[in-house]
Amino acid sequence: MELALIHPMLVHFPLALMPLVVLLQVWGLIRGEALFGRNCLARSLLWLTAVAGLSAIAAALFGDTALDIAVERGFPPDTLEDHQSLGQTSALLMAALAVIHALLYLRQTDSRGGPGLSLLIISSAVLIILLTTAFYGGNLVYVLGVNVAG
Length: 150
What we know:
Blueprint: H1 6-10, H2 12-31, H3 40-72, H4 77-107, H5 114-142
């Protein structure tokens, strides 16, 4: 399998998991459930944010490889660098979000009010950045044919 194809496969994990994290946070806050307690929702959110963060880091690492391959194939680097910068930012923010969630979980922080709502706002902002990154990536693939047109 070609290395450039691993990046597009990996990006779908954070793209699927991050909206689910936000939806579950909203659902938990509406229902008054503890987002950081020892319940099913809190454990699910912890694992979902961890897997989303780790998969985003892996996608960013393979994205660097895909960028190098695209440049070797003649695509101008400046066209690719906006997506790369956003991808690296998304990956770091998602990893940081997973760490923050883990710390709140370990402390069993009361999620009602401030901490739960704050985490929802941060998660939503990270999701917006992730979707912007995906938009740029989609343009690279579907408009320019980066690493797919042969």
